[in-house]
Amino acid sequence: MSTGRAGQVDGWLRRALPGRCAFCLAALPGEAPWCAACFAGLPWNLPACDGCGEPQPPAQAGLRCGRCLRRPPAFDRARVPLRYAAEVAGLVQRFKFDASPRAGSLLLELLTTRLSADAGAWPEALVAVPLHPRRARERGFDQALWLSRRLARRLGCPLVRAQRLRDTPSQRGLGRGERRRNLRAAFFVPATLPGRVALVDDVVTTGATLEALALACRRAGAREVEAWAVARTPLHDR
């Protein structure tokens, strides 16, 4: 579906279904875009590794995963509230490939709902994971930038634009090490960053993209870097 057509459909849905849950279409008593049952039933990423956001078994709650203990990522912490599954996967696909503002708005609401007050006040700047200009022109939509602009306005902090220097090959089918090599020196931040920054993306798969961007941010002056994304792809789905 084209960007214009997707926007028309989303506008029609907002007008046609006011006060309805975005997932089950049940009537809503309040202003939240979802009902309590659907919200509770979403694939929450709990528990998750505090370092990389990787889903963890219940016994590992509150602990860092073995991979982070062996080789800590370049970012200090990951905040990824959902798993890329079920309704969330459908929202991400409509947002990313159909440029659906309705899906994007829901994903942004889900992310901010799970950001604690101290997390929201923490970053001095946000940095969106950038697309290469050629890919952005082909797709006509940059989902990480869309999320980052709106999140920066909500948090009242600046958005810094990073640059993707190389149009790296697709990451599909690559292992963690291969993805890191694929993204080596792929990003550049053309500004001096403040001490605390949060990177923003829609989905984390292995974390290699965020790792490469975090290294670029540290070269640009950031001392503390967090990685924020809406969803994390479970290991068995990669």
TrEMBL record:
What are the TM regions of this chain, as residue ranges? Answer: none
The segment(s) forming the Double zinc ribbon domain are 13-69
Recorded hits in Gene3D superfamilies, A to Z, give:
3.40.50.2020
InterPro entries named in the record: ComF/GntX_DNA_util-trans, DZR_2, PRTase-like, PRTase_dom
Q: Which SUPFAM superfamilies match?
A: PRTase-like
Pfam families the record matches: DZR_2
| Taxonomy, superkingdom | Bacteria
Q: Which family does it belong to?
A: Belongs to the ComF/GntX family.
This protein is called what? ComF family protein
